[in-house]
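pasting for the record
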Amino acid sequence: MKLFWLKNNQEKTASLIDSACAAGAASAAASDSDTEKMKLLGEKIGIAFQIRDDLFDFGDGDAGKPQGNVINSPGIAYTRQKNERIQR
């Protein structure tokens, strides 16, 4: 489940933020090396953001969004079912 979650979020939130960071660096005429560093920073920020956002699904407070979305998403539900069958 961990690998699915990480891959899924690298292709969503982290990809969006890393692209924005790289674009900002490139538009400021940063070197290729610095642009790549900014892209990596954006990926880390995107993953951290998604971890925080997903943790709201486990809470019982008012997060300002519906709870349980991640837990009940098709990919996670499939992975949970697969893990349950393996453990039997």
